[in-house]
Design a protein that fits this description.
Blueprint (H helix, E strand, L loop, with lengths): L1 H57 L3 E5 L5 E4 L1 H7 L3 H4 L11 H14 L2 E9 L5 E12 L6 E10 L5 H8 L1
Antiparallel strand pairs: 1-2, 1-5, 3-4, 4-5
Length: 173
């Protein structure tokens, strides 16, 4: 009788072990599937980010992206060429510092809140050398598509009277 009880106990324990192993295998399968999904999403976002970085690098226009507090987070190569600043110099700086009339940007932001964007707005920016560049500005809010939360703004501008900062420096020499 003791032998039978011992055998039943061992069988019960083995069943529990087998059940736990099956659950563990299922958890591992779920983990691997989640990992594949996250890996695919990471690859997709990395590709999209590279594409957007390429736009900033290749554009001849002024492209400035800001966070919700108007701090510069991205600054295009065209903006560097026209305004004379490097992206690193302006990273984290308030974009209003580039404007000849800083209060004007707030007025434009208020208009964006009402109408959703501003297109072809004529204004002026100041270069690193202190020169004034007349621009035609399009400013749009950037929102999180899922939550509707404001992530910042993107400003795309064409300089209407600008020669590049580099050409101004060369002429000065």
């Amino acid at each position: 009788m003791v032998g039978l009880a011992q055998m039943l106990l061992e069988k019960s324990q083995q069943d529990k072990i087998d059940d736990l192993e099956a659950k563990l295998r299922r958890c591992e399968e779920l983990y691997q599937e989640k990992f594949r999904v996250l890996d695919d999403e990471l690859r997709r976002r990395t590709s999209a980010n590279s594409y957007l970085e390429g736009i900033l690098c290749c554009s001849e226009d002024i492209i400035i992206a800001t966070d919700p507090e108007s701090r510069i987070v991205k600054f295009s190569t065209g903006a560097e060429r026209i305004l004379g600043y490097t992206a690193e110099e302006l990273q984290g700086q308030n974009v209003s510092e580039l404007w000849v009339e800083a209060a004007e940007r707030q007025k434009i932001l208020d208009e964006v809140k009402e109408s959703g964007r501003v297109r072809n707005y004529e204004t002026r920016l100041r270069t690193k050398a202190g020169d004034i560049v007349e621009i035609s500005l399009t400013l749009s809010p950037v929102k999180d598509q899922r939550r509707g939360e404001l992530l910042g703004t993107v400003e795309v501008s064409k300089a209407s009277n600008a020669r590049s900062y580099q050409s101004l420096v060369v002429e000065a020499l």
